[in-house]
Amino acid sequence: MDTLLSLHEISKNYGKIHAVDKLSMNIHKGQVFGILGPNGSGKTTTLSIVLDLIKADHGSFQWFGNVPSKETRKRIGSVIESPNFFPYLSAQKNLEIVAEIKDLSYDDIPTVLKMTGLYDRMNSKFRTFSFGMKQRLAVASALLGDPDVLILDEPTNGLDPQGIAQIREIILRVAGEGITIILASHLLDEVQKICSHVAVLNKGKILFDGEVSEVLAEADCIEVSADNLELLGKVMSEYPQCKSIAKSNDKLLLYFKTLVKPQEINQFLFSKGITVSHLMERKRSLEKHFLELLAQES
Prior knowledge:
Blueprint: E1 3-14, E2 17-28, E3 32-36, H1 43-50, E4 58-63, H2 70-73, E5 76-79, H3 91-101, H4 109-115, H5 131-143, E6 149-153, H6 161-176, E7 180-185, H7 188-194, E8 197-202, E9 205-211, H8 212-216, E10 219-225, H9 229-236, E11 242-248, E12 251-256, H10 262-271, E13 278-283, H11 286-297
Parallel strand pairs: 3-7, 3-8, 5-6, 6-7
Antiparallel strand pairs: 1-2, 1-4, 8-9, 10-12, 10-13, 11-12
């Protein structure tokens, strides 16, 4: 895959605080890449470094295989801070000003307004917009010039459920156009719905870097039920790889030391004279994986 952004041993300190600590990772073309972590994990600092808003103390990064330059920055759209436009001007006029600053024509303005669902409000003043609409206008301004990559820092922060859903739809629509998305978030559910890849940060260090599907493919536990739950639990407690057993209504939740397939459990129970009425893998969520990673660090 084409490497779009490459970070090598990036570090940034604020006094004794290691905001980013020897961070290395690669982001490839076409990915929807989520940088996930609690507040203070280094997400915004990392994005600010690769956008040349702040300088790293150590390490280096490359955009599109090259040292960052004015030309590479033209290929990047970003929304890092709260939307900041002229309140007395319309969405159209505000985007025209942005286009002039970026030395672009106005040709893309109708396209980005349609993409962000603001075309019908193009002549409305910015001060009349809801917070969600202001956020969408910021995304529209970042899309001017048809960038190769769009960087979003906490794009759904402060939005109501409807606003979150609208931003999610826009991100997926933009990604469908072939634009690579890099977003920072602490909302695990949204990252799971949107992102193809994720990096988990904590205290400036990377704890995990890989595909979201890789995380979701792993089973958290196996649900099983039979006529006699007490006997079922007793028999499963003798299974060598069984780590713990929990009861949930009319089912048992089986946790294992290593990966165990449901068919293995079915065969084991059948050999003990037990016929199961329910047997299913319960997949691990991104939230579960995230909390496990943080617990390992504490």
